[in-house]
Amino acid sequence: MRKVKTNEFYSLHYSNKAAEHMLKGEYDAAYANIKEALNIKSNNLIAVNILGVLYHRTGHQQWAENSYLYGLSLKGDHLELLNNYHNLLITNGRHSEAEQVATVIASYDNPDPFRWLDLADEELAADNLRKSIRFYEKAIEKADYLHQPYAGIAAANFKLGRIDQALTAMEMAMKNAHTIKTTNRYQVKYNALKSMQETN
């Protein structure tokens, strides 16, 4: 187990506080904490990524891009940062550059299925449905025994009006569920989808 240095610990602490404030829409407090995190450790990739998201949310697009580009110059896992940079480019209508970043993400080989699952859930919540499906599929590539990615694919396909694909994914979610409670929850959703399919 890697020992965390004191400055790294405090920098991560302030990064986490910044993320909490940002989620509440408390952008000044988020900025103050992220500034503290970066003062302690300027190459904290998590803090740099949060700073980029914060700038993006507050309308400072160029500063957001500068943050992401700086983050990409640092060592570390860039998956979340690349996804946020991709979203920035899409928001600003820079589709050609966004496609290049999407290609990098598609070839990214992070072995942790939960990293892909978290990204997929974020994209689903933002109604980036096709993108969420791609990330759920990446999670499945890494761990096809999980039920959550299939449930996510079902939800995205339902929102896209693709009931047949939603049913297929929900069947897999039920098959992979490990508890009766989860299986029952999926069964209710499956039955609802089935009745929708039959009425169409």
Proper CATH architecture of the largest domain: Alpha Horseshoe
The global form is elongated
* Percent of residues in β-strands: under 5%
CATH class of the largest domain: Mainly Alpha
Give the SSE string: HHHHHHHHHHH
CATH superfamily of the largest domain: Tetratricopeptide repeat domain
* CATH structural fold name of the largest domain: Serine Threonine Protein Phosphatase 5, Tetratricopeptide repeat
Explained architecture:
There is one protein chain. By secondary structure, the protein is an all-alpha fold. Helix content is about 80%, strand content about 0%. Helix 2 packs antiparallel against helix 3, helix 8 runs antiparallel to helix 9 and helix 9 packs antiparallel against helix 10.
Spell out the blueprint of helices and strands.
Elements: H1 6-23, H2 27-40, H3 45-57, H4 61-73, H5 79-91, H6 95-107, H7 113-125, H8 129-142, H9 148-159, H10 163-176, H11 180-199
